[in-house]
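Q&A log
Question type: sequence-to-structure
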Amino acid sequence: LVLFPVLLLHSIAASPSAAGDRPTDVTQRRLANSISGASGGRLAAALGLLLTGIITTATHVIPDVEAAAAAVTGSAAAADAGIVAAAAAGALALAWPVLAPFVEVWRFSQLDGQQVEDTVAIKQPLQEDLDTPFFVWGEDALLKWPGALPPLIDERDQFMARVAAAAATGVNPNVPAYIADQDDSQLIWRYMMPEGASASSAPAGFGDGPFKPLAGPSAVVGVVGSAHVKGMVKKWNESLAAAGGVEPLLKVE
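Response status: OK
Response body:
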């Protein structure tokens, strides 16, 4: 998220540009924890089911199952093959939510240039049906990975909405910003931290010093990815009440 709070003043120094997304190291660690819990469990269960089928046919440790399968198929060999096939099908069903995004990415890679443009085109207003997440087929495939959506989208929607609300209300946004300034009549952008910001998101001592948030901007322009629009709009009213309160979203469990 890049924010541009604007004041109707002639001074160029009244145009900060805030880097309003959550620090990547926090998102990466939360993503790893979430995916390992959701996707890792599925893959482990799928592997366990497949191995159980193979071991069952190899060691005959469950004779009743094999006998029932043999009665249906008419032979022990066919029964063994049926057990392995059933185990493989079950394992694939368990693992498919993890594998499907890779298949979608591969299919997307097979499209030509015009097909890609047609596929990624946004064909409906993003402000409609806020309860349904918006994904660009192919480009956003990996967001469908089990465990990926909360840290990559939901939590960052909340983080960025609170930063945007802070910029709109003159509250400490708790994120770094680039402040437009002049030096010998040359435009420069100074990387600065807001006064009193959280050390987790905007540590003091970095950049060109502290800055005070703008009070009473006439407008705030946010530049965000399409997957974040619905969540930020949906969370806007509650974000106004928690403007700049990003600390709970910076914890890594």
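Response note: The longest strand covers residues 186-194.
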